[in-house]
């Protein structure tokens, strides 16, 4: 698929990007090549192919869910400007 030069100019205008004539020509060629590649990929028959999340059979290495720090809530609330019933009080900003 070939992208017209006017479309690149329109995209640049919508994105508020100033392009020189040379840049417009370059981007027109590059975007046309990208669209041609996408068309080529769309032409591949993927019937029966199972979608995958990763190209390799990689497994996420997870650590055990264990507590690694002590509870410091009382220390943090001791230095807070206002606390009530274990909650931090903040000024109201929305009426």
Helix content: 40-55%
The CATH class name of one domain reads: Mainly Alpha
- How many strand units? 2
Q: Name the CATH superfamily classification of one domain.
A: Glu-tRNAGln amidotransferase C subunit, N-terminal domain
Question: How would you characterize the overall build of this protein?
Answer:
The protein is mainly alpha-helical and 95 residues long. It has helices at residues 5-14, 21-42, 73-78; strands spanning 83-84, 87-88. The mean pLDDT is 92. The protein has a two-stranded antiparallel ribbon with strand order 1-2. A hairpin with a 2-residue loop joins strand 1 and strand 2.
Task: Give the key terms.
mainly alpha; 3 helices; about 40% helix; about 100 residues; two-stranded antiparallel ribbon
What is this entry, summarized?
This protein is about 40% helix and about 5% strand.
Topology (elements, then pairings):
Elements: H1 5-14, H2 21-42, H3 73-78, E1 83-84, E2 87-88
Antiparallel strand pairs: 1-2
Helix pairs in contact: 1-2
């Amino acid at each position: 698929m070939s992208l017209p030069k006017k479309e690149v100019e329109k995209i640049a205008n919508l994105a508020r990007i100033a392009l020189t004539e040379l840049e417009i020509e370059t981007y027109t060629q590059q975007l046309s090549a990208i669209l041609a590649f996408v068309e080529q990929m769309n032409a591949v028959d993927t019937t029966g192919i199972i979608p995958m999340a990763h190209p390799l059979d990689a497994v996420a290495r997870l650590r055990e869910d264990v507590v690694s720090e002590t509870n410091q809530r009382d220390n943090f609330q001791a230095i807070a400007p206002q606390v009530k019933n274990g909650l931090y009080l903040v000024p109201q900003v929305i009426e």
